[in-house]
Each structure stands twice: as structure tokens, then as C-alpha cells.
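Ticket #4471: complex job returned nothing on first submit. Input attached below:
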Amino acid sequence: EAGVTQFPSHSVIEKGQTVTLRCDPISGHDNLYWYRRVMGKEIKFLLHFVKESKQDESGMPNNRFLAERTGGTYSTLKVQPAELEDSGVYFCASSHLGGTSPKNIQYFGAGTRLSVL
Amino acid sequence: ILNVEQSPQSLHVQEGDSTNFTCSFPSSNFYALHWYRWETAKSPEALFVMTLNGDEKKKGRISATLNTKEGYSYLYIKGSQPEDSATYLCAFALYNQGGKLIFGQGTELSVKP
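Support reply: We reran it on our side without changes. The output follows.
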């Protein structure tokens, strides 16, 4: 069974440019989460999809970030325009049970390392 | 603001040493506590999910305990090996929050042969 895959693994862009990150969850997982780790800090929650619906987007930093999950399969996270402080590792995770069970395991992708110069 | 604290931040041990780290989390509204093992440029790997006070989990040489009343969890590694070198992350899930995880900063373990 394929795990969570993220693309690209690394992106280097200039301030003001646009970048789109993609996440393919494990097949059949309705719950998809985005997280971010900026240098030296903890991994922080960005948002949570259940199928194609945004369940919780309380962690999105500002309106330069737009997440979509059309059709409830893969998800994209677009940053437009990118700023220096957006640099970090963006993780995607998927799970079958979501918040309906305390034993819910989230399976993570390897992340996209974003560098904004 | 909910905080998850991990200590120590980093740890250097010799092969064969046993070691342990601490994760502290808010004791109210507890739902679950997760431990992950993460090597840079790889996917964080789920080690344990613990939900009940007093839970003890074991996976090979790694084990974990949970105290929800006082808000802490310990992760133990017995007889550390170089391949155990990684960052160990704990993450706390609140009740009725859709399963989103609040992470600590991690403990970076380096095991020298």
C-alpha cells in the first residue's frame, strides 16, 4: 500500500512568487491534514479536510495560503505571494478515523521543504 | 495557548546506553498522546498512540508510558543503537478537535557507535 506522497520534495522560490504543494493521501483516507515546521520550531497544524470539506482551518497563517481538496482525493496548498517567513517544511498527513476515535493514527508524508529567498 | 514541552532538546549517548525522554502536555480535555520517530527528509513514523491513564506500550526496544492526570509521558529506549538516531516527537490531541495534533519541539537523539 502506498503511503502519503508529497510533491515536490524541495522548492526554492523568490519572495513574491507563487508555489503550489501537492499531497496524495493514502487511498480511502477521508481525513487529510496539513502541518508546517519552520526552522527550529515545533510542527504546527494548518488545516484539516474531511473529504473535500474544510473541517478546521484555524491554523492557516493568513490569506496568502489557500488549500483545496477537490473531489476529496489529493490536496494542494498554494502560497501566493510567498514571503520569507513562509520558509519551512510543509507536511501532509492522512487518517482513516479523524477525530472520531482517540486511536486515530495520522500517517505523514516526507514533507515539502520550501525555501523563499 | 496549549503547549507541549519535550525534554531534553537533544541527547548524545553511546551505543548500548539506555535513555528516556519526557513529554509534558495539558492534563485537561485530553484525548490522545502520540509518539513519532522522525529522520530528516523522511516521513515521521508513528510509534505509539496512547489514550488511557496508565497506558504502557512497547515496540521492540522502545516503550512508552502515559500519565494523563499529571500530564506527562515518558519514552524509553533500551540498549540504544546507531539506527535509533532520530528526532522523537510527541503530539497531543484534544477532545472534539477533529484529531488535529499539537506537537512538542522534539528530542533529537544521536547514538554513537
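Chain B has a mean pLDDT of 94. Closing as resolved unless it happens again.
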